[in-house]
Amino acid sequence: MSLKLKLQRMKGHLTRTSADTTAGQREPLSAPAAKTRSPAAAAASGAIPFGEQWQALAATPYVHEGEYVLIREVRYPLCWQHGHYRLAELFDVIEMWRQSSAAHPLSSARLAADSLLFFDTETTGLHGGVGNIIFLLGTGRVEEDSVVVRQHFLPAPAAELALYQSFLRTLTGSEHLVTFNGKSFDWPQVKTRHTLIRHQLPQLPRFGHLDLLHGARRLWKDELPSCRLSLIERQKLGVWRTNDVPGQMAPLLYFDYLNGGDPRTIEGVLRHNENDLLSLITLYIHLSRLLLACECKRATAVSAEELFAIARWYEGLGDWERAAVRYQAIAESWPGSPLCGRAKVALGHIRKKQKKWREALSIWEECMRAGVYLPEEVYLESAKICEHQLKDYEKALAYTNMALAARKKKGSLLRQQAKAELAQYQKRRERLEQKLHRLF
């Protein structure tokens, strides 16, 4: 499809004046008032092309060494509801992390709310590399009694130095980036572009980084068709956008903007980025509440699948007791679910690591009596406990025999599968030989 046709399909987005909506809200982005600008700034905005249109979008110019960029600011009160959560609940989850003291990659126990910089970019390509230009640097940050969404927009490639100068001067006090795939894409792209003009700019700050994509994948990769932010918004956060510009259209719309310079061409991309930043805040709130389920009264409801994924995450971090609490909760709250047996097996492994031999064996024996499928290593580990720790050689022999039986059964299944696959290949080959024979 040509660029012209793609832009025609997006015509509705180019002229849209209403903002994206969340469930139960009609105009979520238009209600918060933009930051008041000085008369001098307003006069300056009139000196640039389409100055009145930029002013209507709450954007003012920033001039550096003869080039200008646009800085757009929109303020949201902390009581603002985005999907299921109010923005003020960011303070609640930080306090929950402090009370928990869990050593988790997404913990903000030692951070202040205003030190978190929610960050998202829009670029001229969806892949990295020196040729990929960032044309929009978006941030969201708590400032006094508001969340300020601040967007630095590049009106022309020649103004890239002004773009990064305007961006860097607003980062004072920020300590941690909060992104969605920012570790792999957004921040490395910033580093790449900064490197090209680093001699004319201050150094990039050294940030900590909370990448929420990794958390989303750990919890929902087996539940959701994909872990795109737009899908997570609908399925988990209660955020429903209308007339939203798809992210993949952003480069095309930017190139179209460069041809004409009309801000209305790029307005949909600005609002899309604005919504992404708000969703980063609510996603962090939601993930934190899930991760702190089972230990904080204010934590949100969690499904068995989510709780199992969280338990595995804590186990991988070496926090065995928090993992054990969650495995136990699955066994008690979802006794008939397929995850119940897996949770008990995992709980037994944790108790063995903690050298609680009898407790581990008791858990596994309960699974055996219940007829739960157990991999051969569970029988083998049970045999080891009986032989080396409990000196019960009779049981050790019995469990060793069970492990051997499980191994033979698995080998038999694999052989049957291999035979079935071989039969399919042979059938395909015969069919193709017959077709070729008919042709010749």
Overall description:
The chain has 440 residues and is of the alpha+beta class. 53% of the residues lie in helices and 12% in strands. It has helices at 3-9, 11-14, 39-45, 51-56, 89-100, 160-168, 182-196, 212-220, 229-237, 250-260, 263-291, 304-316, 320-333, 338-353, 357-369, 376-389, 393-439; strands spanning 59-64, 67-77, 81-82, 85-86, 116-123, 134-143, 146-153, 176-179, 208-211. The chain has a 7-stranded mixed beta sheet with strand order 1-2-7-6-5-8-9, with helices on both faces. It has a two-stranded antiparallel ribbon with strand order 3-4. Helix 5 (89-100) packs parallel to helix 11 (263-291), helix 10 packs antiparallel against helix 11 and helix 12 runs antiparallel to helix 13. The protein starts with a helix and ends with a helix.
Short précis:
By secondary structure, the chain is of the alpha+beta class. It contains 17 helices and nine strands. The radius of gyration is 28 Å and the shape is globular.
